[in-house]
Amino acid sequence: MLTVSRRRLLAASFGPLLPNLLRSAPAIADDMMFPENFVWGASTSSYQIEGAVDLDGRGKSIWDVFSHSPGRVKGGDTGDVACDHYHRWPEDIELLARCGFTDYRFSTAWPRILPNGAGVVEPRGLDFYDRLVDGLAARAITPWLCLYHWDLPQALEDQGGWRNRDTAQKFADYAGTVAKRLGDRVKHWITFNEPNIHALFGYGTGENAPGVKGLPSMLAAMHNQNLAHGRAVQALRAERTDFRLGTVVSLQRARPTSGRDEDRRATERFEAMWNGACLDPQMLGRYAAPVADDFAPLIMDGDLATIHQRLDFIGMNDYAPMYVRSAPDSLFGAWFGELPPGTPVTAMGWPVDPGSLTEELIRVSARYNKPEIYITENGACYEDIVAGDGTVHDAERTAYIHDHLAAAQRAIAAGVNLRGYFVWSLLDNFEWAQGYSRRFGIVRVDFASLTRKPKASYQWLTEFIAQQKRR
Predict the structure, then answer these.
(1) Is-catalytic flag, 431?
(2) Which of 122, 157, 194, 360 is catalytic?
(3) Domain extents in the chain
(4) What confidence tens digit (pLDDT) does each residue in 218-263 have?
(5) By CB count within 10 A, which of 4, 225, 376, 385 is most buried?
(6) Region for 291 from its dihedrals, namely left if φ exceeds 0, alpha if ψ lies in -120 to 50, beta otherwise
(7) Is residue 377 flagged as an active site residue?
């Protein structure tokens, strides 16, 4: 139940929305208890929320060019304005604070800081993140800074982008530039968000920016991002010794669609490419056997040693299991298969199976010798129904979050060193090639007026986090 003081705080914050939010929120699970000092956070990314793409010297990113290319993004949507977080960040920090989040994971936009990807630094770009970090500190929210969430400067893509090994050193230089400015206040640093997905869909299938297709370009992009990760970790550690450094990878439990040998082998290859092609070299210093021959021609002397840097944590983004089939004509011989009949799905068509999160956490813990793990993205897209008063009764999203938190708790009970949970996402935002047609936020954004309205899932999390803190 809500305490009187918390009810008054919520009423002051959300006024007439409160009664409907409370009615739609399910009961808080009294038996769900997380460890003391467990991190409760929310995640966003620069291109998906910032907007202001032509302000204060920002250069073009690959997503600026891609989204303005006809037919690339649903509805012709772009991130030109997005959530206008560039101007509305104080309001968004207040939303974080009111929900009780202790930590916030965001990304810096490389082209906002180095418009050409290298060379001249744009001080106004760093000034923006300076203000953001100071605003978080004022509300006692710990910043987790991700250096790259898919928005490569277009100037570097014109030179080959992640297919070009030189981009790895430019990324390390960029990391050092940001650390020099913000490292006195930011202690949690993430090199990449989901380099596996960026390489697969940006440089393999061409569905995301920069729209390149083919297995050779995908492999090169993945290996060069791995190399960039290692060099950036070295640059960050050279800047300060008090940083906590990690990586974020999309990790999804892989299951064959049948008991056939070809589907089982395809699943092993798919898992090695999706789940392992970044984490294995970063954590173990090698590529897994099912894909080692693919990457061998790209590896130069010293690469694996550079990639294999000591990390303080793994960030795991998890949404759904993957059902895999043999597909000889696909990009690398294995691809997504049919879901089991009756499987519930989100509006993205992704299967809902909280147990797969428990399984994947246990697998990752065992494979990498019980590392410190944070769930850095988890959430769901549903077709939100907006009531007449503007509230969103997103019971499906709330249930999804509840059930995945329960799955995370089961992994902790099994011995996984899980230290935190970041919901994706704080805000509805620009959802890449889906544009604004898909919503993951616990806060609804009206993209015409840019007003923010907390959904029922936000209210549920507010009380759930408060309950955890009281214990």
Answers:
(1) no
(2) 194
(3) 4-470
(4) 999 999 999 999 999 999 999 999 999 999 999 999 999 999 999 9
(5) 376
(6) alpha
(7) yes
